[in-house]
Every structure is written in C-alpha cells, then in structure tokens.
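> example.struct
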C-alpha cells in the first residue's frame, strides 16, 4: 500500500546518526532475567481482529515485541531498523548476538531496498550489481510470498546488530495471511526469529510461544481467539509448512560469476532454485551449492540455524540407527526394553513401530514417507514429548534420503535436519 511504501521509505532512509544514538542506549538496557529486574513481564494473547492487528502494528512501530504466525513457524517480531527493538528480541530469547535475524516484508521491492546490489546507496560496481540484482529478483519473483529466505550483502543503512556484524542481511516475504496483515498494519519491515527460547524447539502454536516467552513483554497473536482472518486451520495446525524456511545466500565471486549457497533446508529445494535460475537464464553465472554447517555460538553467521544446538526438546534425545529400524525378525534385548519403559518414540513412517508396545508413549510423524505431513508435525511432536510424565528420553529414527531425492524432496531433508 502507499502507506506502507511511505513508512518503509522513511525508515529505510533512517540516518546513521539515529542508528548510533539508538545503539548508545543499549548499554543501559537490563536483561530480563537479571537481578535488577523488579517487574515481572507477562505476555499477552491477542486476537486477529483488525483492531488487534492495528494495535499490534503500533506496538511494533514503537519498538516493542509482537509474536505472530507464519506458514513456517511463529516469529518474534520487532522493528527491523530500530537497534533497541532488535536488542529486545535477543534478550527475550536469550539468543547470542552472533545469530542474526530475518527481515520480513510483504513486497520484493521492499527487500530490494535493504540489499546493497539494488539499493540507491550501493557501493559495488554496476556489472556485479547487475547479475546479483537479477538473481535476487528472480528468486523473489519465483518463491515469494513463501518459505524462502534470501541472504545478500546489505545496504549500508542496515543496523549491524540484525546481521551479527557480517554485512549480509536475510529477507523473506511470508505467505501466511496473519503475518502479511501485521506487516501491512505496522508499515515497517519486521525482523523476526522463531518465538522460543534460544536452542529450544521452534513454536508452531500460540501456546508454544506462551510456554517459552510467557514472562516476557510480548503480545502473541492467537488465531484460536475470535478473529476476522480465516487461517484455514486443519487438525489444529496454524503453521502449515511447520519448519523454518530454506535459506539461500546470493554472493558474487567475480564480476560475472557467483554462487547461491543453501545454508538451511526448508520447503524450497536446491533443485527448485536451480530451475528458477534456468528460467531466468542465469545458470551460466550462478552455481547452486549446499553449504550447511554447525558451529559454536561464538561464531557469527549470515543466517540463523547454523549453531550446533537447535530445535532441542527438554528431554534427552537419541537417534536409532537405520540398521535397527523395522527390519524383519528384529529382536530387542531386555536391557533395551527396560530403557524404553521411560522413553517416548517419535517415529517417521513406522520405522520404529516395533518399539511402540514397549515405550511410554508413541507418535508417528507421518505414513508412507509423507514429508509434508511430517514437517507440519515435527515441532509439535517434539514439544509433546516434553509433556509425557516420566519421560527420560526421546527416540526417533535415522532418516535415510535416497540419492534421487537429495535435491527433489526438500521437506524430508528439513525434517532430517531438525531431528
């Protein structure tokens, strides 16, 4: 809308002096769990009515936090160009500053202003920018709105805190109607990681967010309350993709060649991205490479989801090797059966069905290797495992992805990564 465009342009052109002034205020901010905190913060559930979303938009503009559903997971949103607001997200999540945030916008044109290759203040040569900008536009046109996060060199005006000091900014345009309505109501780009404590299982429902962030100063949009927006929920699922977005980094290696690196698996596959480049006549310029990694929290990243500990339930978790999964005549020892009496099983298409009768509780993510259903269920099931009285450990099967599916079935790779 014109209102969004006006507001976005204003905030996008925010001066560096303003950013420095806001950053100087960070040192006086108190961590929510510190001894000097006197007031207990309490989260607030709000509906999806137009009035609620309008008030939530104003709250975001004023520098405070709002959690909202997307098609992937629930996000914890803040004003992306306000360093103090961004700092509040890190504090609420207890997230290291080395783990950057994703900026959410409604239109590709708004993201293009945040990337150096397409911004008016670009410092890069025009020939490099031409190819990079073409790739950015091609990816955004093909996959937005939807579960693809695109990472590229940032415009100079972007606050360093949102990028973990790397100089690269991640952007996405969500397809969920509530997320898009909130962005529209706020009139600003919204930075939002998953709305959970750092390292814990990502939330896919409002009550998941409340479980993790209930003592924080955050509003949580809950579609289960009276709403004007029809989400199209099925079987209680609000975030229908259910796992975080694919992350693809666009970077030039020379004036005429570059790479698109897949940094996190999601619903968009590397084959999907290759096909997009082919349709845009960019395959001679860009090569698609898989570059997933896991490091310690002291390493700064250009995109989230790269640290060793992620998506972890508060129950010890173990993977059962493929050799021990649903084979004819498999025999479990008495020692193994005793262990299973205090174990929860989260299965994938019946691979551990032989353990069901011995376990404390059992759920199967899907049948017939249905990766879409498995992805929609995985985080909810991991959180379910935490609620089972007496559970000391959770077991799930090793998922083997056939060579022919490595680039085709993106979601089975995403589920495999999360487990």
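> example.seq
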């Amino acid at each position: 809308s014109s209102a969004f465009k006006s507001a976005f342009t204003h905030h996008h052109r925010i001066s560096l002096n303003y950013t420095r002034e806001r950053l100087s205020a960070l040192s006086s901010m108190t961590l929510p769990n510190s001894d000097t905190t006197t007031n207990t913060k309490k989260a607030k559930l709000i509906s999806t009515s137009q009035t609620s979303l309008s008030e939530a938009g104003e709250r975001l503009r004023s520098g405070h936090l709002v959690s909202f559903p997307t098609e992937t997971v629930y996000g914890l949103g803040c004003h992306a160009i306000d360093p103090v607001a961004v700092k509040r997200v890190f504090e609420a999540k207890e997230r290291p500053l080395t783990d950057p945030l994703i900026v959410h916008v409604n239109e590709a044109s708004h993201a293009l202003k945040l990337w150096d290759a397409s911004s008016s203040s670009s410092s890069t040569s025009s020939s490099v920018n031409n190819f990079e900008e073409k790739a950015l536009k091609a990816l955004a046109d093909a996959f937005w709105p939807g579960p693809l996060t695109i990472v590229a060199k940032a415009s100079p005006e972007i606050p360093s805190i949102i990028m973990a000091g790397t100089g690269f900014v991640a952007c996405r345009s969500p397809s969920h109607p509530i997320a898009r309505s909130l962005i529209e109501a706020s009139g600003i780009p919204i930075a939002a990681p998953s709305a959970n404590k750092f390292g814990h299982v990502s939330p896919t429902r409002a009550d998941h967010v409340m479980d993790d962030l209930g003592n924080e100063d955050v509003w949580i949009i809950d579609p289960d309350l009276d709403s004007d927006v029809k989400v199209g929920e099925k079987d209680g699922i609000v975030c229908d993709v259910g796992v975080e977005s694919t992350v693809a980094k666009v970077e030039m290696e020379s004036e005429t060649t570059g790479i698109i690196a897949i940094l996190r698996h999601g619903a968009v596959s590397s084959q999907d991205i290759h096909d997009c480049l082919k349709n845009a006549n960019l395959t001679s310029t860009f090569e698609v490479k898989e570059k997933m990694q896991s490091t310690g929290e002291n390493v700064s990243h250009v995109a989230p989801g790269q640290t060793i500990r992620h998506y972890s339930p508060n129950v010890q978790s173990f993977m059962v090797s493929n050799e021990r999964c649903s084979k004819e005549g498999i025999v479990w020892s008495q020692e193994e059966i005793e262990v299973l009496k205090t174990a929860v099983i989260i299965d994938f298409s019946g691979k551990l069905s032989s353990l069901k009768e011995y376990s404390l509780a059992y759920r199967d993510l899907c049948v017939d290797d249905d990766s879409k259903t498995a992805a929609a269920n995985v985080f909810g099931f991991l959180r379910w495992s935490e609620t089972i009285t007496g559970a000391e450990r959770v077991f799930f099967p090793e998922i083997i992805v056939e060579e022919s599916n490595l680039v085709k079935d993106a979601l089975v790779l995403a589920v495999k990564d999360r487990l």
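> remarks
Residues 27 and 260 are 37 Å apart (CA to CA).
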